[in-house]
Structures are given as structure tokens and as C-alpha cells.
What does this fold into?
Amino acid sequence: MRRDLLKELAESSGLSGNVKGSIDIVGDIAILRTPIWIEPVPKESLEKIAVKLMDRLPYVKSVWLAASPVSKEERVRELVYLAGEKRTTTIYREHGVSFFIDVAKVYISPRLSYEHLRIAKLVKPGEVVTNFFSGIGGFSLVIAKNSEVKLVNSIDINKYAVEMQRESIKMNKLDNKVRVYLGDARTISDFFLKESSNRVLLPLPGIDESFYKAALSTIKGDAGWLHVYEFVPESPEFSEGVEEKFQEIHNIALKYGWAASLYHVRKVRSVGPRKAQVVMDIRVERYI
It folds into this structure.
């Protein structure tokens, strides 16, 4: 576990109990996910950990600190250089797909790797999938590579993420299976994607009703799927949190003429004290 590795490196640097968080490895770049905005840690101490990390994992060539939370709109975070090569670009590989990434300009979580392939395995031959918050294309390209999808519509508002995604599409020869859009998912879906898709991915927690309305208008025919990623409380309130969040989505769906059924829930990861990210696979059917 990368969380255990960070703890071990901190203890070997004489910092036991002072450094919390975990480590993300993206290609040959490591990012220390230590919430210094909550519990400050001297930069010199983190630099010691970074050097030890490179000694432990020789394939890591550059180490950075995530010095801020992920921003809401474009999903980026401030990075501070700690050790190794002073660069933020790398090639990240996952499930047979190579991604060109600049970690300073886009957000990526390797901990979603399992979900990328899980969703790909759910996609049936000939389906059209729309990804509302595609980032560097983690879901979009893995689905295109590992399923018989007809087309993935991949939307993001971050121009750098879209540029990198287009580069990755060319690199993986997926031009005929992924169509990338730059802009607000609500606008893009309204102008170009109404009643076009069998599935809509909503991998950004905390979205408001307008995004669910847009997602529902993107579903074609009388039924389809929403794959929703949200935050809920950890146990013992986990089940209640999931039910409450689903009821919110269910009520929104009813408002726009859809019935929603929760088919599958999975905890994706812990994201803080008593807080988890979950995925909900929701079947939606028109009733009017």
C-alpha cells in the first residue's frame, strides 16, 4: 500500500506521526498526497522523504508534493517540486493504454484504474458511451481499448486535459472510437448529444441537478445507465449515506420523467476521515 510506504519512509526520516496521506505513482512521477493545508509539514522534511522514495523505487524519476486540494472546476492542484528531474510530463500506462500526461495541468488518480476496466467490461457491443468529466481520458480510452463500444463521447472543460487526451488517442490509434469535446458537459450534450448514448459516466462528485438533467437527456431510447461517482460518509453511516445520495438522484430523475433503480454500489476509495468515494450503477427508464 502506498499509504504504508509513505508512513514507513516518514518514520525512517525521523518524522513518525507527522506525515499523513499517501503516494500516487503516475508513470515515472511520484506525487505525495499529504494535506499540508490542514497539517503543515516542513518542506525540508518532505524533500528527505522524496529522496528516500526514489532510492526505494528506482523507476521514479521525479517527486512532487500536491500542495492544495483538487480545484472544483478544472480539477487541478498546485504542485511543489521535491526531488529528481524537474519535469511534470510522463507516459502513464493502464490496461493496454498509454496516456501522455502533464500532472501539473490535469488531475489523475491511478486509484480509479480498477473502475476504468470494470466499466469497460459492462459495455455491450455497439453501445455509445458519454463521459461528462473525462479529464485525460482514463475511462474513455480504457473503454475504447477494452470493449466493443461503437463510440465514446469524451467531454472536459480543461483545455489541457483535452489536448493531452487527443494526443493519447492518436498514440493508441483510437481515433475511430473516441470523439473529444472541449467545454461544459451540459452545453455539449444539449447541442450535440441529445438521445445519443446507452451509458453516461459522471465521475465528478458533488455535481448539481443540472448535470443530471443533461445526462438524462443524453440517454437514447427508453432506458440506459448512469454510472455516478459520489462522496458518502464512511461506516457506520455508509449504507445510510448511499441511500440518501441515491434518493437525491432518484428524485431528480422522476422530475424529468425517468425512473431510477440502483443496481450496484461499490466503495472506490477512502478520501479522508470518515469519508468515502462510491460508484453507483443506476438503471434509468422513461415512464412518461
Observations:
- The CA atoms of residues 223 and 285 lie 4 Å apart.
- The chain has two domains: 2-87, 105-286.
